[in-house]
Amino acid sequence: MLSAVHRALVHLPIGFFLLVLFMELMVWRRYKMGEKNSAAVTNTHQWLSWMWMALAASSIIALISGTLLQNSGYYAGQTFTLHRFTAYAFTILSCLVAVAHQYRAWGDKISFFLKVTMVPLVMLAGHAGGELSAGPELMAIVPEPEHPNLSAEDTVRVYPHIIQPIFETKCLRCHHQGNARGGVSMDSPEALLTDSLGDPVIYPGDLERSLGYQRMILSPWDHRVMPPSGPPLTYHEKRLVEWWIMENAPFEASLADLNIPADLLQVLQSDFDYRTQSSAFYEKVKAEPIDSNTLRAVVAAGWNISRLAQRTHFLDVHRKGRLDSLSLDDWQALEPIAANIVWFDLSNQTVPAAAFNLIGKMPNLYRLQLQNTNIDNEDLKHLTDLQHLHTLNLFGTSITDESIPYLTKMPVLQRLFIGNTPLYEIGVDSVAQWLPGVAIN
Fold first, then answer.
1. How far apart are the first and last CA of the chain?
2. DSSP state of 157
3. Cα dist. 184→173, 205, 226, 258, 293 in Å?
4. 3.40.50.1820, 3.80.10.10, 3.40.50.620, 3.40.190.10: which CATH number matches 292-440?
5. pTM score, two decimals?
6. Which letter does DSSP use for residue 109 in this model?
7. Domain limits of the chain?
8. Are 122 and 17 in contact (CB under 8 A)?
9. φ and ψ at 209, to 5 degrees?
């Protein structure tokens, strides 16, 4: 608020200065015309005396408001120093010229010199003030940024993934090493923790001594509130910074290392799309697009296909509701899209032995449904090189304990369904001993 008042007040001395310059030119013109002692010149001199007094008074008022604004600690740097120096110099000279006009002191030459000196001063002060109050890096209102999407992160680290983006969008335009307003930089852990100018921006475990946090939670009407312009910190952002500080402001810790209150867990889930369970690999990588002719050929071969999501080229392929048999050529129609198949459902189908060799060459296969098919132990050997096979359903098949050597070679298998099979009859606990870490049903 004080910033807006100061910006309004500085226009008064500028306006008065332009007015007195115009009047001085009028007087000079009459001097040139030989009318130095005319009544018009005398009257103009009287008005000039009052105008110079008004200019001096308005300059002092603007200077006082600027000094109060300086105490906010928001402004610093070379531009601010130039603005402050030229403002003081302009105010002092305006007072001297006002006195000279009022008391006819110092002679015309000195008065003329003072007036000429004020011209570059007001130009420099105005330019520097404009940079401070409306410069592209300081006061430009930026749109509310979106929070980072944490769903693509395997390990969410609190500072770089959550706290630092808040500081980058709300604080760093004024508080970085190249432009440290008020001598405060927030672009590195070292800068946040420094106490060279008093209390540090962040004091781990202590909100009262964390100067930056205290400025963030001030009333929006307080001239010391940070940020003083642009989008303010939201309640959720303030709450996250508060929680991070009270967790001793770690810079390397992950979310799993810290205690997350229930309300903040909801904030992370709603604002940052944070997931408590790890994402599947295909949610974090991109697949190559498939041309429409290839897709039509696959459908014509008897396969049902759909995308996993609107913005991905990974596919769900199945034959649900189709009882017609497939030829080897129909199976080979899948080869051009093998890298795009992530979910493959062959339940209740007759699968030729040669087809398992093709399935074993689907590099991104994640979920394979083979329940109630004719798969046997030897067919599993073709699946051992699948680097992303997470779920395998063998319910109702003929697999036995001879399949275990092949199952143990599947590198990332997490879920295995073996109900109603000879393997299931030896006991889930027995199978689990061979497959530690795999959820067996």
1. 65
2. B
3. 12, 20, 12, 28, 60
4. 3.80.10.10
5. 0.44
6. H
7. 2-134, 150-271, 292-440
8. yes
9. -95, 0
**Which among 320, 404, 321 has a CA at the least distance from the CA of 369?**
320
CA dist 218 → 133, 173, 238, 313 (Å): 21, 20, 11, 48
Split at pLDDT 50, 70, 90, the class of 38 is low
Q: Which residues of 156-183 are buried (b: 16+ CB within 10 A; e: fewer)?
A: bbbbebbbbbbbebbbebbbbeebbbbe
pLDDT digits (tens, 9 = 90+) for 74-133: 555 567 778 888 989 989 998 988 888 777 766 677 777 888 888 898 888 888 877 666
3-state secondary structure 238-289: HHHHHHHHHCCCCCCCEHHHCCCCHHHHHHHHHHCCCCCCCCCHHHCCCCCC
- Please tell me the distance from the alpha carbon of residue 84 to that of residue 381, in angstroms, as a whole number: 79
Tell me how far CA of residue 302 lies from CA of 127, 203, 220, 337, in angstroms: 73, 65, 65, 14
Which amino acid is it at 61?
I
**How far apart are the C-alpha atoms of 312 and 116, rounded to whole Å?**
69
Pick from 128, 133, 100, 119: nearest CA to 5: 133
φ/ψ of residue 343, rounded to 5: -110, 130
Whole-angstrom distance, CA of residue 199 vs CA of residue 136:
30
Cβ neighbours of residue 85 under 8 Å, at least 6 residues apart? none
Pull the structure tokens for residue 25. 């030119």
